[in-house]
Every structure is written in C-alpha cells, then in structure tokens.
From TrEMBL:
Assembly: Homodimer.
Pathway(s) annotated for this protein in UniProt: Cofactor biosynthesis; coenzyme A biosynthesis; CoA from (R)-pantothenate: step 1/5
Protein name from the UniProt record: Type III pantothenate kinase
HAMAP family linked to this entry: Pantothen_kinase_3
Binding site for substrate: 107-110, 184
Active site residues of this protein: 109
Organism field: Tropicibacter oceani
The enzyme's E.C. designation: 2.7.1.33
Cofactor comment: A monovalent cation. Ammonium or potassium.
Keywords tagged on the record: ATP-binding, Coenzyme A biosynthesis, Cytoplasm, Kinase, Metal-binding, Nucleotide-binding, Potassium, Transferase
Residues at which K(+) binds: 129
Cofactor(s) required for function per UniProt: K(+); NH4(+)
Native organism taxonomy: Bacteria, Pseudomonadati, Pseudomonadota, Alphaproteobacteria, Rhodobacterales
Length: 260
C-alpha cells in the first residue's frame, strides 16, 4: 500500500491508497520540528482508531516546506523500511515535465495537481487550489504544467487585515447574506468572500482568453465548496486532486523501475 503525504504551509495530510481507493485521510498542522517518532505516534493512533489494516510498502511526499522533508524521510525509513519518493527531487520522475522559465521552481503540490488533472481530464485545465495561497495551475493539452497564478490565500487575507489594522478582529470566512456589511465583521466577510469570487472569476476569464483554447476549471482545497456556493466558478470540484496526483506520479515511477 502507498502512503501519500501532502505537506502544505499550513496543514499536512496523510492518505493511504490501497491501489483502488483512499482508505483514510489524516490531517495535522505543519511543523518542521515534528520528529519521525512524533509522526508515527499520531499516525498509528489514528490508523488504530479507524481500524485500518494498513500495510505500507511505499511512501510519496509532496512538501511545499523544504524543512519538513528530512523528518518525513526518517519516518518512512524507520517505520516502513522504504525510501520515499519526494516530488520535485531529481530521483522522482514526472510523467510530463513542466514548461516554465529556466531555473524557476514549481511547487510540488502544483506538479501533483497537474498530473491529476491530466489523468482525469486530459489537459487544457486550470486547477484552482485553495490552500495557504490560492494558486491557479494551468495544465496544457499534453499534461505539462505551464504556469499559473499565485494569490494570497483566504485565511492569510483575513489574518493580514487583523494583523495590520488595530480595530479589525480575526473573523472566519463565510458567505455573507449581503454585500453591504452593516457591522465590522460583516464588512470584512464581504470584502474577502466577494473579493475572492471576483478574483476567481477575473483570473479564470483572463487565463482562458490568454490560453486561447477551451479549458475546464477544477476547484480543489478545503474552501472550494464554499466559493462554489456563491456563483458558478468551477466545472467541477475534486477535493482529492493533489492526493490523486501523488498516486499518478508514484505509479509512473514504479513503471519506470520495472522497465529498467
Ligand atoms: N467553511 C470553512 N470556513 C473556514 N475554514 C474552512 C472551511 N472549510 C474548510 N476550511 C479549512 O480549509 C482548510 C483545508 O484546506 P486545505 O487543506 O486545502 O489547505 P490548507 O491546509 O489550509 O493549506 P496548505 O495546503 O497550504 O497547508 C482547513 O484548514 C479547514 O479548516
Ligand atoms: C504556491 C504554493 C505556496 C502553493 O502551495 C506552493 O506551490 C509553492 O511554494 N510553490 C513554489 C513556487 C511556484 O510554484 O511557482
Ligand atoms: K493544499
């Protein structure tokens, strides 16, 4: 069985793939100081709690936080006796390499999203991923990641208002009933919610115009459903897109090893 690890700037998600489906999805906050033993204590408690019969033979990691990778490698080695594939490292091959400016890095989560979008939709896709940042990942006809957009994430925007303005409280995102807020919280929620709806509409429209071919828009990440309830912004929402991409990349590397 394959353990997929998607480590974002805010949250780290573990998901067990049995070859057909994900048996479970476990979520913790991202901390570079978390040790291999700490990961295992957390992981084994939940796997036992859910009574999952997990026989992990392979591990694949996508991490947007370089510092956590070392402890995750130790975790894979110590508890599952395997060398993990780390997306973005030279030993992890991609089905289709990205086409971006020479010398620029591409987030491994975006590479995984591209692999998943191509596998499921066959390219000409823009993925809108709501994480710490809200990123738009453009996937060409042949499945290559060819660039996109990085915007501040929803929670980051709310936090920035609270941090930067003495009279503004911390608020949680929700869809406000009205656009014209009649109290501070309502005004902030309106600014961020309707501001985001405009951002998503505006950017996808401009991406499509610049790309010049019909494209599908796929929403993913925790907040995609919230924005989908406001307007028709996505053709589809797929909450397991990044994880699915990790299974695709893992599978591709397995095929290469077998062919050698
Ligand atoms: N209605 C909601 N209101 C506020 N937060 C929500 C809501 N629905 C989901 N979330 C939050 O969305 C987050 C899940 O998003 P996701 O895992 O895609 O990104 P992240 O973990 O925040 O970012 P990253 O992947 O960059 O670490 C969770 O932290 C969850 O608490
Ligand atoms: C944009 C984020 C933060 C989204 O998680 C991540 O993919 C990242 O750190 N990317 C590196 C820069 C880039 O993808 O162009
Ligand atoms: K994410």
């Amino acid at each position: 069985m394959l353990l997929c690890i998607d480590c974002g700037n805010t949250n780290t998600v573990f998901s067990i793939w049995d070859g057909t489906r994900f048996l479970c999805t476990l979520r913790t906050s991202t901390h570079h100081s978390r040790t291999a033993d700490a990961y295992f204590t957390w992981y084994s408690t939940l796997v036992n709690h859910y009574k999952i019969d997990a026989d992990i033979t392979d591990v694949i990691i996508s991490s947007t936080v370089p510092r956590v990778v070392w402890n995750l490698r130790v975790f894979a080695d110590r508890f599952f006796g395997c060398r993990p594939l780390v997306v973005g490292k030279p030993e992890c091959q991609l089905p289709i390499p990205p086409r971006v400016d020479a010398g620029t890095g591409v987030g491994p989560d975006r590479l995984a999203n591209a692999a998943a979008a191509f596998d499921r939709h066959g390219g000409d896709v823009v993925v809108v991923d709501f994480g710490t940042a809200t990123n738009f990942d453009v996937v060409a006809e042949d499945g290559a990641y060819v660039g996109g957009v990085i915007a501040p994430g929803v929670n980051l925007s709310l936090e920035a208002l609270h941090q930067g303005a003495a009279a503004l409280p911390h608020v949680d995102i929700t869809q406000p009933d009205k656009v014209i807020g009649t109290n501070t919280v309502g005004c902030i929620q309106s600014g961020v919610f309707w501001g985001y709806v405009g951002l998503i509409q505006g950017i996808t429209t401009r991406i499509k115009a610049e790309y010049g071919r019909p494209m599908k828009v796929i929403g993913t990440g925790g907040l995609a459903p919230l924005f989908a309830s406001g307007e028709v912004l996505f053709d589809k929402i797929e909450d397991d897109l990044t994880m699915h991409g990790l299974t695709v990349i893992h599978n591709y590397n397995k095929t290469l090893t077998k062919a050698e």
